[in-house]
Amino acid sequence: MNANDIIKNAPPIDQVGVEERIARFTKRSIKKESKMMALKMAIGMCDLTTLEARDTEGKVIQMCNKAIRPHEDSSIPSVAAVCVYPNMVAIANRCLQNSKVKVAAVATAFPSGMSNLKFKLEETKYAVNEGADEIDMVISRGRFLAGEYNYVYDEIAAVKQACGKAHLKVILETGELSTLDNVRKASDLAMYAGGDFIKTSTGKIQPAATLPVTLVMFEAIRDFYYRENKMIGMKPAGGIATSKLALQYLVVLRETLGMKWMNADYFRFGASSLVNDLLMQIMKQQTGVYESADYFSKD
Q1: Residue 199 falls inside a structural domain
Q2: Residue 56, Cβ neighbours under 10 Å: how many?
Q3: Which site among 16, 60, 111, 195 is 20 to 30 Å from 297 CA-CA?
Q4: What confidence category does residue 189 fall into, taking pLDDT thresholds of 50, 70 and 90?
Q5: What pLDDT, in 10s, does the model give residues 229-267?
Q6: What is the chain's mean pLDDT, rounded?
Q7: Is 299 inside any structural domain?
């Protein structure tokens, strides 16, 4: 299927209907035993991320240590991955090599995507050669909004090939796509072009992840699975800072895609600050009192 056919076949999105469904999902209550299980599950689905110009080797090492052991309570799982810039991949890879935590790297001129394809492919290959298990690429939003769908499709396919054995997460930057119809079209393009995950945002643009956008992307994944019999992962990123909100995302995931997607192989949270709030909620469930935020590392 070519890019124009993918766009033509994308169903229109009823924004009011999406918002009504989200309103129903967010009213669900979770019992205490299930809540504890969901909080720990959410930690195991997080990608700890540091993507700042002031990143240092020490900061990456500290984050890797936290990723492996988020808390002294051994029943709390490691996070899913640590996400860094390509020049920090070797450091993260060295720290995480004896753990199950993956190394993810942003590439393709993150976060803007404003560069040529040759550079994007070279950066992707560099990150993979340094030891990245996963690549988070950004689509060319300007090209997409200009209707150059074949360009966007071909670019994703080329980056996927450059990834080799590494998994590819395709960042749509939904805050710049303007409409839910565009979110659906971009989701379909990314999956058919070879993306292993579709991801909402870089975290650098507002609005970032939202529940309505995530539901539209879940539905695109569901429809793709029915057509192609292939499971695609999903990563909402940016703006998910509280346990309450994270649990709402898990409810929408469970109700839309089902239990097969309820694991880190197919669902991630791109929200480093979320981990501490999840830990605080777990301690509250266990002890009945909130621990101070000062008891948890900031990175």
Answers
A1: yes
A2: 12
A3: 111
A4: very high
A5: 999 999 999 999 999 999 999 999 999 999 999 999 999
A6: 95
A7: no
User: Is 235 designated active site?
Assistant: yes
Q: What is the CATH number of the domain that holds 122?
A: 3.20.20.70
Query: What confidence score (pLDDT) does residue 286 get?
Result: 83
Confidence bin at 184 (pLDDT 50/70/90): very high
pLDDT at 295: 63
What pLDDT, on the 0 to 100 scale, is given for residue 51?
A: 95
Choice among 40, 160, 169, 235 that is catalytic: 235
- pLDDT on residue 29: 82
- pLDDT more than 70, % of the chain: 97
Largest CA distance in the chain: 56
Q: Which domain holds residue 169?
A: 3-287
Q: How many domains does the chain have?
A: 1
User: Is residue 136 flagged as an active site residue?
Assistant: yes
Establish if 9 belongs to a structural domain: yes
Catalytic residue among 47, 136, 196, 277: 136
For 136-165, write each residue's pLDDT tens digit.
999 999 999 999 999 999 999 999 999 999
Q: What is the 3-state secondary structure (H, E, C) of the chain?
A: CCHHHHHHHCCCCCHHHHHHHHHHHCCCCCCHHHHHHHHHHHHHCEEEECCCCCCCHHHHHHHHHHHHCCCCCCCCCCCCEEEECHHHHHHHHHHHCCCCCEEEEECCCCCCCCCCHHHHHHHHHHHHHHCCCEEEEECCHHHHHCCCHHHHHHHHHHHHHHHCCCEEEEECCHHHCCCHHHHHHHHHHHHHCCCCEEECCCCCCCCCCCHHHHHHHHHHHHHHHHHHCCCCEEECECCCCCHHHHHHHHHHHHHHCCHHHCCCCCECEECHHHHHHHHHHHHHHHHCCCCCHHHCCCC
